[in-house]
Amino acid sequence: MYSATLILFSVATAHAGVVYPVLIESRSGNSKGAVQLSKDYDIDLEESSVLGDSLYFSEARYGNVNHELMDTTDIRNSVYENSEHKASFTITEADAGIEMEGYLNFTHGIKPLRIHGKSGRIPHKIFPLPTPEDSIHYEIPVEERSDESLPPKSECNLQNGSQASNKPPACWNIPV
Fold first, then answer.
1. Beta strand spans in the chain (E)
2. Does residue 92 belong to any structural domain of this protein?
3. φ, ψ for residue 16 (rounded to 5)?
4. Dihedral of CA 112/115/116/117: which sign?
5. Which single residue of 21, 61, 99, 175 could bond 112 by disulfide (Cβ 3.0 to 4.6 Å)?
């Protein structure tokens, strides 16, 4: 009984963040169309402005560096943005529908689940993005600090014009 309840709860929780995006073609010449995530939520597609016509790509392997100038036409045709929602994502057309991956806004992202739903469309998971407080650690653990770096020079560390080698400093400077 306990395992059945747990399975039902996990399925219900996972289902809440699953959508089936549909690409809506534009009828006007100046729009790229829209993506409908649910019956109440559409995102208008705008051509992304993050890539130029070409991209300089450098790759280093085994001491050899290769440089290549790449045409970004194919990449630009799959990268979209929405300035109203602050969204940026890629859309790839597949046999079963579209695969959409990226940011929907500042707080949520979307990615395909790589399984096919019963409707013939690809299910996608909407997930919360980490906040800066979650991902930035201001304190570095002692074991990750480098012992090779020299302590900052200050008047507190100097005694008689030279740095004391066998005595601890009289005062400590704590970087802020």
1. 18-19, 22-24, 34-38, 41-44, 46-47, 54-61, 64-71, 79-82, 87-94, 97-103, 108-112, 124-128, 158-159, 162-163
2. yes
3. -65, -30
4. negative
5. 99
Is residue 108 assigned to a domain?
yes
pTM: 0.57
Mean pLDDT computed over every residue of the chain: 74
What token pair was written down for 148?
């090779």
* DSSP per residue, 5-16: HHHHHHHHHHHH
Q: Is residue 120 part of a domain?
A: yes
Q: How confident is the model at residue 132 (pLDDT cuts 50, 70, 90)?
A: confident
Q: Which pLDDT does position 143 carry in this prediction? A: 59
**CA–CA distance, 117 with 114 (Å, rounded to integer):** 10
- Kindly state the average pLDDT of the residues 10-21: 60
CA dist list (Å): 44 to 38, 87, 132, 153: 13, 10, 27, 56
